[in-house]
Amino acid sequence: MSEANDRHGATAPALEIRQLSFAYTGRPALDDVSLSVAAGEFVVLLGPNGAGKTTLFSLVTRLHDRRRGEIRIGGYDVRRQAVQAHARIGVVFQQPTLDLDLSVAQNLAYHGALHGMGRGEAKTQALAQLERVALADQRRTRVRRLSGGQRRRVEIARGLMHRPRLLLLDEPTVGLDIASRRDLVEHAHRLCVEEGVAVLWATHLIDEVRPGDRVLVLHHGRLLADERPETLTARLGVETLGEAFDLLVGTEEAACG
Ligand SMILES: Nc1ncnc2c1ncn2[C@@H]1O[C@H](COP(=O)(O)OP(=O)(O)OP(=O)(O)O)[C@@H](O)[C@H]1O
């Protein structure tokens, strides 16, 4: 979708957050967070439980809205230009949100209708996205019969049906085995390279970070690092990203993996 870029210049980031702060009934959950994700970029939002990752996603998607700061998607302000902004986001939530008693295709058709897509367009997009995640031949299967990894792939296909430029994934590998986790990480990287989709991947698992990924370390609602693993380890004078993470957030809260 180049419309946002046409209007806002080719350099409009897929996501831009400026000085974002948010509190749940007086308790700060995000404190002055600024970040930007370029078009087609893969960025890991790494933080232990309670760091504020889900809260940040909730503010981008406007599940919560009482906050300070600015959020733009593809150059569009999520409050003042909500329709344009939200047409450009796909989301895979931490908790699975598929209807287990519907088929894969029915789940995707429902999403297409929610996004105002015609039936024909929704069907075409659903098939194209299911092919990308190698699940086209399962489209008539009830979701209940799929494995955890397959369900997550269906959610990614669904999140991309309306052709967003930014895909938010909130701990998408929770509960999956190692091979399925690796497949999902690889798939998300391919989306960036082949489709130009920007991906913000939230996790507490260090082993989901790949060399070359940009890593945002979030802890107690504050952004403590925004750099490549190799830059971060060199800056902190340690060997591994795990050691760097321990130093930043404290060993007692260190991510596993
Ligand atoms: N609805 C809520 N009401 C009050 N406090 C909340 C609410 N949701 C989250 N919090 C608190 O806000 C902080 C950030 O939580 P958040 O869920 O955003 O973190 P997270 O990084 O996504 O963690 P996790 O990986 O455990 O989901 C935590 O201290 C959490 O207890």
TrEMBL record:
Coiled-coil residues: none
Residue ranges of every copy of the ABC transporter domain listed in the record: 15-245
Cross-referenced SUPFAM superfamilies: P-loop containing nucleoside triphosphate hydrolases
Keywords of the record: ATP-binding, Nodulation, Nucleotide-binding, Transport
Superkingdom, natural source: Bacteria
GO molecular function: ATP binding; ATP hydrolysis activity
InterPro entries per record: AAA+_ATPase, ABC_transporter-like_ATP-bd, ABC_transporter-like_CS, ABC_transporter_ATP-binding, ABC_transprt_ATP-bd_su_PQQ, P-loop_NTPase
Family: Belongs to the ABC transporter superfamily.
Protein name: ATP-binding cassette domain-containing protein
Source organism: Billgrantia tianxiuensis
